[in-house]
Design a protein that fits this description.
127 residues; five-stranded mixed sheet; flat
Length: 127
């Protein structure tokens, strides 16, 4: 997403949030956040596909309501700039913290991102 897109969005929101207008409901805000998040994750996956291989770091934590959540991050190398990136890509509830359940959750996330577990060359866990 370019800075021009953010300027356009900021301009639109500033007009929408004018006290005399009530166009921006929490449903619309959540939809905008979802669209922006999808755009960011798509860019991360596209950058990852340039180098093909990746590493995965996963942490799990309980939220305020005590629901365990998995938080994977993808690490990849940019062959053009020789830089390593670590990008948070998802947060999802886990119903069990067994190794099998956490792997199933990770595999679902990777499938959703069109990443193959066979291309994973490094793993890191915390929790």
């Amino acid at each position: 997403m370019s800075s021009a897109n953010f300027k356009s969005l900021k301009s639109w929101i500033s007009g929408v949030t004018n006290p005399s207008r009530k166009w921006l409901s929490h449903e619309v805000e959540n939809e905008l956040i979802g669209i922006m998040g999808d755009t960011v994750v798509t860019t991360i996956v596209e950058n990852n596909q340039k180098c093909h291989f990746f590493g995965i770091m996963i942490d799990e934590t309980a939220d305020k309501s005590n629901i365990e959540q998995s938080c994977p991050a993808i690490r990849h190398f940019n062959p053009e700039t020789y830089e390593i990136y670590g990008d948070f890509v998802d947060i999802s509830p886990v119903h069990s913290t067994t190794g099998e359940a956490l792997f199933d959750n990770l595999n679902t996330t990777l499938s959703h991102l069109s990443l193959r577990i066979e291309d994973c060359r490094g793993q890191g866990y915390n929790g």
